[in-house]
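Predict the assembly for these two chains.
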Amino acid sequence: MAERLIYLPLGGAGEIGMNAYVYGYGEPGRERLIVVDLGVTFGDMDSAPGIDLIMADVGWLEANRDRIEGIFITHGHEDHVGALGLLWPKIQKPVHCRRFTGALARLKLEEMGQPVDQLQIHAPRPEVITAGPFQVQFVPISHSIPESSALIIDTPAGRIVHTGDFKLDGTPVVGEAFDPIMWHEIAGEGQGIKVLACDSTNIFSPQPGRSEALLANPLLDFVMAQRQMVVATTFASNIARLKTLAEAGVAAGRKICLLGRAMRRMITVGIETGILTSFPPVVSPEEAAELPRDKVLLIVTGSQGERRAASAQLSRGRYLGIELKEGDSFLFSSRTIPGNERGVIRIQNQLSEMGVDLFDADDGVYHVSGHANRPDIEAVHDLLKPQIVIPMHGEHMHLREHAKLATKKGLAAMVATNGDMIDLTGPVPRVVDQIDTGRLYLDGSVLIGAMDGVVRDRIRMALNGHAMVSVIIDEDDSPLPDAWVELSGLPETGRAGVPVAQSIEGELAEFLDRADGKTVRNDDKLEEAIRKITRQVSMEEIGKKPEVTVIISRLAAE
Amino acid sequence: MAERLIYLPLGGAGEIGMNAYVYGYGEPGRERLIVVDLGVTFGDMDSAPGIDLIMADVGWLEANRDRIEGIFITHGHEDHVGALGLLWPKIQKPVHCRRFTGALARLKLEEMGQPVDQLQIHAPRPEVITAGPFQVQFVPISHSIPESSALIIDTPAGRIVHTGDFKLDGTPVVGEAFDPIMWHEIAGEGQGIKVLACDSTNIFSPQPGRSEALLANPLLDFVMAQRQMVVATTFASNIARLKTLAEAGVAAGRKICLLGRAMRRMITVGIETGILTSFPPVVSPEEAAELPRDKVLLIVTGSQGERRAASAQLSRGRYLGIELKEGDSFLFSSRTIPGNERGVIRIQNQLSEMGVDLFDADDGVYHVSGHANRPDIEAVHDLLKPQIVIPMHGEHMHLREHAKLATKKGLAAMVATNGDMIDLTGPVPRVVDQIDTGRLYLDGSVLIGAMDGVVRDRIRMALNGHAMVSVIIDEDDSPLPDAWVELSGLPETGRAGVPVAQSIEGELAEFLDRADGKTVRNDDKLEEAIRKITRQVSMEEIGKKPEVTVIISRLAAE
């Protein structure tokens, strides 16, 4: 059979977060494969209460492990590398990165006790990595973390450019600038570019993106204008922003103090890997607490309202000896990711109660996005002149809008979401298979499937409460007269003015007294009857049908 | 003792939603009281899973019921009238409204089986309602629902203007325009205005608000430009918007179909109360389904992503015989309220998967806010020239910003949040008491306190899962060797590769076998020991400590 080139997103296509993409080349069903990125996304109470991390279900990769040539990581954001340590055991192939990303990838592997010798650190283009039928180059591109890379993936069927996350920034403060001339060369080599798999997250932003360097003056003006303590929060991995903030602080005569483990780690990794050649000296929280309030700039984690990050800690009172006060200033040098509003607003109100003045980045003066906006995406289409555009990384609406844009420009385009296997060999993309995919959840120390029912049961208990009933059947298959009922997450007293549990126990005692032997001897029947009575009495008493767990204990004849 | 004028917010001050304010006049501790608004807010999975409605805890009003003269409702939004039926039994005093608001208030009372003869319908100013020492007038003001009213509350200590929710709209499409001349008169009467209690929700919006009437042309252009079915969603109570949308549809040659019970009810109430003098004829969903796709405009509920509203139903497939298709258009003529993003995005993606084109109001072309922005609030300060400004209805940060604005203009201002009793008698406001306040939750058919622990337990079960253990102690105070364990919302298999429940049962059996009599005879001690073992084994097996419920059944000697 003729060989073919395939694209298979397992995560990130139809959602923002948990990126995981597969490319393959070879005979159908026997393609050699490479994996691009293994990221996570974060759960929330609405859909995944108690879940620590969410990632793509890589069952298909596990089943086809012998066909995989390697894993390539484009950059060090959690939604691109966060699942590496957790999923590596299912794949067990070499991991390719550049130096800074590699340092973060190493931490992910170490955390999960996976072998770090699988990590291979590469220089950017012109270095070429051969992985089966693929020739891969890391190409510097700008983003909100240093050393973000697009991939050139050369295959016998043509050249793919996989952008990873990117923006067009000629002055990114830290890391490599977007280099249109190099990209022009890349587009001109050989047969040109067959496929552009391209970041779609900001397709609905109509203005051209703005450079990181534009923030230096506004941030300096901002810090200069404040009279007491200044706190600024942003993503820890946005090292350029940390540097701009810190330099603004120093220029305004303040000492810099970093709060939050992730932030200190990023600076360390940045310096160790040579990405960050200069960063102002920092003081410890203890030193900062001793300084006059107008001589300190705190740069802290928790811009998305995370409950355990430094921002939230400061909003709740004294943290590491530092306490915010009336007249202090708190800057969100960040954008609130949709879905995180409640957490951010909670912190903002707590700060307001302390008398802290809030400065919000949602107006864009103190923040720029790390992603290409619609005109930037269009510019990349024009620059690279691909035959096919595959919109990547975005909710369905982003992918669809991106595909419409490409189609309007006369390019072949297709919306492919997680699990769609696309044949890219011909002039237009074609769906050739649908792979069972889904999400894995890290719950405590265990990986579970999103559809295992664990989370469904948690959500049900949270919405409906939980009633537990214990009944005992004696040696002669007669129920003991008392049933014990315990309620959790339910009002104690109902319409009858007595404890709801007591009302249920009363009804159950009556039922058990007259239950026939056939029902009593059958666990399923007995349980079903008890559940029904419990829900019925609850409904009458409190207008709610709880989840019910029944434990039937059968006493054995001694 | 000298008489005094007090203000006491019980809800809405330090949050957006569940408005409930109290004014009092008289000797300290014996003031006669009026209540302004009794609204609800809505729970979410993060803070109140399974809770149907949230409202102010009016325990203080209940305890001082004999001092209350009446309840005044400013307008018909849920966050101002939604708790009336639920809380009326605790207050049991006459309810004063204008006609349209009264029709909605009547529905609230009827739903909860409360007497509707307590409802008194009033004409706007110049009608004066006497309630103890208070002389109250309803004054028309514009908002996103018809007949919104500010209150003039004349007291022996001076005149209060309580704005309710408002905007400055000279052309509100439906209902009364903002009338600056009347407000100028109001400010000029007698001693002028002592206190302005003023809506703060939009204090951070720097541009002057825009009129509802500005939407007619953009909405008509929008509908004219669409080629297939058009769906528009907005708040059901925004009758002006419904009318503008419907008229745009008719002008574009389409039939109008309203989907969602709340929407049809609002139109009915609007027509019955004379608020709405004309509305285009509507067709039923069955008729709409039969019409050519380019001849229909659906106006539907669910702009905030509510799971059971018409928008969500349509996003999931066929609804009342109507199914959206590739090329249809869906307009959000609304703003997403912070915290509702996840639900809205879910619907938008599902629509995108159907091929429906999305038009989003967050850019403001197809939506205007119902609240006064910062310059509008400032204009009201200037127009009314109050002695004291009390920022009302807003998160803490809104109230604080509003107070700063007033102070800068030389007005006395104070941030008062729920439970702060403020003395307004003198030239500057003064905190004189702190009332125990909080939130009540409607859970099924029961009102519970937010701090009762019910919701706390639900959140814990959702985050940690729930383990139930049943042990039986026989007639001789000896535990039976087997403990039964059931897990809910927890992974089935742990590190040991066997069911987690089985691992726990094993450890518990060992413990019960060697437990001393003192522990076994004491329920608390036994329960504590069992809980500890259960959590320990879970932690080892799955890295998580679940909530644990223990049921100890003691067999009685027969």
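Chain B has a mean pLDDT of 96. Chain B touches chain A through 66 residues (CB under 8 Å).
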